Amino acid sequence: MAIILGIESSCDDTSASICMDGKICSNIIANQDIHNKYGGVVPELASRVHQQNIIPAVHQAIADAKIHKNDIDAVAFTRGPGLLGSLIVGTSFAKGFALANQLPLIEVNHMQAHILAHFIPNVSGKAGNKEPNYIPPRFPFLCLTVSGGHTQIVLIKDYFDMEIVGETTDDAAGEAFDKTAKILGLPYPGGPLIDKYAQLGNPLAFNFPEPQIKDLNFSFSGLKTSIMYFVRDKQKIDPSFLDTYLNDVCASVQHRIVTILLNKLKKAAKQYNITTVAIAGGVSANSGLRSALRKTADENKWDVFIPEFQYCTDNAAMIAIAGYYKYLNKDFVGQDVAPLARMAFR
Ligand code: KG4
Ligand code: ZN
Fold it and tell me: Which atom of ligand 1 is the closest one to the Cα of 196?
C-alpha cells in the first residue's frame, strides 16, 4: 500500500490530493477569484493566497480520503514550470511536511503531470476517469498539451520518457483565448467564456488567418494582432459591432485556434506513424476542441483520449498520480530542492 499526498501551486489554483495505490481518493482545488478584476493572474497576489489556502486544502484532502496524516508514505509536489512565488509556497509546504513526518519527497513536472492525468483510473463512487471500463492510453502515444502557459505536442514513450516534438514559438493557446477575450471586453479567464459564446455563433462567419509555421511548431501572436485590427476596423464602421456579432466572432476565433492545433496534431501523427492521441491541459476543456478532435479521430481511425473536465485544468490529482509512478521507481529528491520557473522534462 502506497499513499501519496500531491501538492499543486504553480499558478493560481491551490490544490491537494491523496492517491492510494494509484487511485485518487480526494482532489481539493481552491480557486483564486481575486485575479478576475485585474484581467490576469497577479503573481504577488497568487503567492499570498496560496499561503492562506494550502493548509486548509491539505486538511480537506486528507479528511476526504478518510485517512490519517500518519498514513501518508510520500509527498509529491509541482517543482515547475510556473510562477516562482506560487511554486515556492507548494514546494516549501511539501518540504516542511516531509521533514516533519520523515517522508520521501517527489518532484513533479507540471506539464508531464497534465499528460499523466490520463492514467487516473476509474474508481466507482470516487474521483477518477469516470468512463466505465476506462483503460489508459498505450505507449507510445502523442499528446497535445494546451494550457495558459504552454502549447506542446509531446511523444510519450513511457511514464517519464517524453519528448517535445512541437511547441509554440510565442503565445500559448490558452493565452490566445484569454487575450482575444480581453480584446472583446470579456473578463479573465476568457477561455471558458469564448467557448460559451462560440456555441451560439457561426464558426465560418469571419475568416482569421492560419499562420504558416515550420515543422510541428505553433504561433498565436499574429492571430491576436489580426483579431485586434479586425475588431477595431469593424467598430469604426459600426460601434455596436460586438453587441451584434460577439457570438460569431467567438465561434470564428475558436474555430481558427482549433484548426491550427489539429492540423499540427495530424501532421505529427503522420510523421511519427502513431494512432493513439490524447489532449491535456486547461484548453482541453474547450468544447470545440473536444468535438473537433473526436471527428478527426474518427476520420483518421485514431484511438483518442480526452480527459474529464476536472483533470483538464490545474489539479493536484495529476501531481499525486505522477508522484505515485515516481514512488514505485524510488525517484526521490532531497531537502535542498528548489522550485524552477522553467523546467525540462525528467
Ligand atoms: O492548465 P491550466 O488550468 O493552467 C495552466 O497551467 O496554464 O490552463 C488554463 C488555461 C487558461 O488560458 C484558460 O482560459 C484556458 O485554460 N481554458 C479554456 C477553457 N477552459 C480553460 N480555454 C478555452 N476553452 C475552455 N473551455
Ligand atoms: Zn496547467
Answer: 26
